[in-house]
Write a structure and sequence with these properties.
By secondary structure, the chain is α+β, with helices and mostly antiparallel strands. The chain contains eight helices and 20 strands. It has a six-stranded mixed beta sheet, with helices on both faces. Strands 13-12-11-14-20 form a five-stranded antiparallel beta sheet. β9 and β10 form a beta hairpin. α2 packs across α3, α2 runs parallel beside α4 and α4 packs parallel to α5. The relative contact order is 0.12. Bound molecules: adenosine-5'-triphosphate (ATP). This is Iron(III) transport system ATP-binding protein. GO terms for molecular function: ATP binding. It holds the Pfam family TOBE_2. Keywords: ATP-binding, Nucleotide-binding, Transport.
Length: about 350
C-alpha cells in the first residue's frame, strides 16, 4: 500500500534562476516503510523533506498521503512527526514536559497525556526519566526524547532530518539501531534524510540517491550497492572503480567486454542498456570484488602498485593499469606487497555491473 507519493515535484527558490533545488522528483513510499533520501550536501534532500512536511510548497508537482492530495496543506494538518539534527527541545523543561508538548497543542486530556508520555518514553527506553531536565541528559538521550516527542502524537508519517549528525561516531551507530528498532515496533512510515551512505545502507528499507536536485536511483540498499544505475551512484555508495571497456558483444542482460590484458568477460547489465559491439561500456567494479591473479592468469589485468595501505581487515592497493588507477581491497593479501610491484588483478565477473555515464 502506497502511503506517501511525490509526483514530478520541483522546487525553485528564485523565480529567475533556472536551476531547481529539487527537480522533477517522483517517488512512492509504502506504508510502514523506512525510506531514506541520501546525497551530498546541497542535493535537495532537506528541501524535499520540507515539502513533505508542508514547510515549503512545491513550485510544481503533487504530494499525496494515501488518497489525500496534501500538496498545499499547512504543516499542522499533515499529521507528521518531525525530528531534527539539533533536537529542538526546550532545555529548561523536563523530559515529560517536552514530550507533552504535541499532546497539549492537540488538547489531549491530562490523564491521557500522562499515560501516553509513559508509553512514548518506554518506546525509546527512557522510562523513569520523565522528571529529568533536558540539559541533564546526554546527546543520545536528548535525541531519544526528541523521538518520543514525535512519536507521542502517533503521527501517520515520521520525518527525520539528519537526526544523528550531532552525535559522536559510537553513539551514532547505537542510536541508528535504536531509531530503526523504534520505527519497526511502531510501524510508522518514515522518511529519513542523511548524507551518510553507511547510515542509509544500515537503516533503510529503500533509498533514493539524489544529486543536483534529481533522484539518481531508488532501490534497496542491496540493489543500490550491487546494481548502481550510474557512475555517480557507484562512486557515492561505498567506493567503486568505474572502468571504460570496449564491448565485444551483448545480450539483454549482459555485455561482453575486453579487459586491458586481452581477456573477455561477461558483465551484468540493466535491461535496455543499448550497448553493442564497438561501443564502450562503463563497468562498476568494487575494490572488494577484485582479487590478485596468478602470474599465468590470462584473465587478470596487470599493472604496477602505486599505493598500498594495510588496515588490518584488508590491504588496500591502487594499481596503475595502462594509466588508469584501479583500487582493490584484498582480504588475506600476501605479506610484503610493495609499492612498485607488478601484480595481476582478477575481477569477479558476477559482481560487476554496467552503469550509465
Ligand atoms: N530557503 C532557501 N532559499 C534559497 N535557496 C535554498 C533554500 N533552501 C535551500 N536552498 C538551496 O537549494 C539547494 C538544495 O538545498 P537542500 O538544503 O535541500 O540540500 P541538502 O541536500 O539537504 O543539503 P544539506 O545536507 O547541506 O542540508 C541548495 O543549493 C540550497 O542552497
Amino acid at each position: 500500500m502506497i502511503d506517501v507519493r511525490l509526483t514530478a515535484v520541483s522546487k525553485r527558490f528564485a523565480k529567475s534562476s533556472d536551476s531547481a533545488a529539487v527537480d522533477d522528483v517522483t517517488v512512492t513510499i509504502g506504508a510502514g516503510e523506512f525510506f531514506t533520501l541520501l546525497g551530498p550536501s546541497g542535493c535537495g534532500k532537506t528541501t524535499t523533506l520540507r515539502m513533505v512536511a508542508g514547510f515549503y510548497f512545491p513550485t510544481s508537482g503533487r504530494i499525496h498521503f494515501g488518497d489525500d492530495d496534501v500538496t498545499h496543506w499547512t504543516p499542522n494538518k499533515r499529521d507528521t512527526g518531525m525530528v531534527f539534527q539539533n533536537y529542538a527541545l526546550f532545555p529548561h523543561m523536563t523530559v515529560a514536559q517536552n514530550v507533552a508538548y504535541g499532546l497539549k497543542v492537540r488538547r489531549v486530556s491530562r490523564a491521557d497525556q500522562a499515560r501516553r508520555i509513559e508509553e512514548a518514553l518506554a518506546q525509546v527506553h527512557l522510562s523513569g526519566y520523565g522528571d529529568r531536565r533536558i540539559d541533564a541528559l546526554s546527546g543520545g538521550q536528548q535525541q531519544r526524547v526528541a523521538l518520543a516527542r514525535a512519536l507521542v502524537i502517533r503521527p501517520r508519517t515520521m520525518l527525520l532530518d539528519e537526526p544523528l549528525s550531532n552525535l559522536d561516531a559510537k553513539l551514532r551507530e547505537e542510536t541508528r539501531a535504536e531509531i530503526r528498532r523504534i520505527q519497526r515496533e511502531s510501524g510508522t512510515t518514515s522518511i529519513y534524510v542523511t548524507h551518510d551512505q553507511a547510515e542509509a545502507m544500515a537503516m533503510s528499507d529503500r533509498i533514493a540517491v539524489m544529486e543536483s536536485g534529481r533522484v539518481q536511483q531508488v532501490g534497496t540498499p542491496h540493489e543500490i550497492y550491487y546494481k548502481p544505475a550510474n557512475a555517480f551512484v557507484a562512486r557515492f555508495i561505498g567506493r567503486s572503480n568505474v572502468l571504460s571497456l570496449p564491448v565485444t558483444g551483448a545480450t539483454d542482460a549482459s555485455v561482453a567486454v575486453r579487459l586491458p590484458g586481452g581477456a573477455t568477460i561477461d558483465v551484468g547489465a540493466p535491461a535496455g542498456h543499448g550497448l553493442g559491439e564497438g561501443d564502450t561500456a562503463l563497468v562498476s567494479a568494487r575494490p572488494e570484488h577484485i582479487a590478485l591473479g596468478g602470474d599465468d592468469d590470462t584473465a587478470a589485468m596487470r599493472g604496477r602498485i602505486s599505493h598500498v595501505e594495510f588496515t588490518g581487515m584488508a590491504t588496500h592497493i591502487s594499481v596503475d593499469v595502462d594509466g588508469n588507477e584501479v583500487m582493490a581491497a584484498l582480504i588475506d593479501a600476501p605479506a610484503g606487497l610493495q609499492l612498485g610491484d607488478v601484480v595481476g588483478l582478477r575481477l569477479v565477473p558476477e559482481r560487476l555491473w554496467v552503469v550509465k555515464p
